[in-house]
Amino acid sequence: MVAAMSTVTNNNNKDLEALKFTLSTATALIAQLQSGLSESKRGDALQTTSPGSVNALDLAHDSASLVRAHSTKLSLLIINEPFTPTAIIKVIQELLASPLPGLASAIELCDPEKYTKAMSEELKWRGKKIFSEINSLVKHIPLDGKILSNNQKNAGNGSLSTTGAVWEACDAVMELKSIGVGGLFVKRAEQYRDLIKDAMEELQGWGEESDDVDDAEYDDEEDETNHNSAQAAVDNLLDSQAHIPADDHDKIRPRLDTSLRRLKLITLLYQAVVKRRFKTLPPLVRPAEDSKAKGESVNVVYLDKVLNIMKKIPDITDELANAFYELDASEIDARMDECFFSGFMISELLSDNWEGKKDEFSTWVC
């Protein structure tokens, strides 16, 4: 019996040593894959795999799904008796053999010229999150032959929390297949539109506050006998610097009204682009060489350019708001012109539908 127990102990020690080696290998490979995503050239991946033979978003989805399933198995193995190093090793080896390299390949194959720069960068960002979180989960694997304690399992940064983070990261990558390029552009456009709306609300509120300040100043002028009138005058002077003055010789108020109307038109343009262009975008956009001049879909470069402009307009709107707060009439005019011209560029780039023809949107933006 003593010999049998000794054999079991030796086997357990060997299993733990094998587990340590596997974890060391896993950590090194994950780091290598992460480093490769930062340094690699997409052309290398495309040389070994025909660009048309693999859909990058499909591959990313399937790889992330497998990572999610394996992370669940791994999480259960380290918190439930009996602690079985060989089972853990098997799961890790399966992760290293296919899902993680597959995800890295998907990111490499997500060519900006085919999937847009926006989708390429989004997949890369979300994919890196998976590598980071799975690496954190691997570090939770105990090497003492015992399952994790309740604290190691349930703490804020415990194994269960880390497993949840892996799931969330995997779900984010899997989502990209379901929404596609069009869905990603819809989400981005709506986010940018909401930023413009927020700026509009702030400007409108600022304009209304200016009206209130004017009324308050008028009331203070009538109460000249107040013993605090000197201090009140100083306070009013300081407050008035942030609001439209009563005389408004720089015509700030008319500029505010005009700007709000124009910004409203821009938000309507965003909504129209979402409905008439992004939501009708083909599942997989044609490569950039399929030009609009040939009567085919708007090329990918145009799409990225449109999204960049849509992203830029909220920044211009913030600059416009600051110009109003500083009562700088010339800066207000410059930023509003820039804002409106950017909207015009969007309508020009997307004037035709994906078949190169005119439609309701084309008529609306004319």
Automatic annotation (TrEMBL):
Q: Name one GO cellular component term.
A: nucleus
Matching Gene3D superfamilies:
I/LWEQ domain, Talin, central domain
Among Pfam families, the record links this protein to: GCIP_N
- The annotated regions of Acidic residues compositional bias extend over 208-224
Q: Which InterPro entries does the annotation name?
A: GCIP-like, GCIP-like_N
Instruction: List the PANTHER family.
Output: CYCLIN D1-BINDING PROTEIN 1, CYCLIN-D1-BINDING PROTEIN 1
Name of this chain's protein: Cyclin-D1-binding protein 1-like N-terminal domain-containing protein
Chain segments annotated as transmembrane = none
**Domain of life, source organism:** Eukaryota
Q: Where is this region: Disordered?
A: 205-226
Cyclin-D1-binding protein 1-like N-terminal domain residues: 63-208
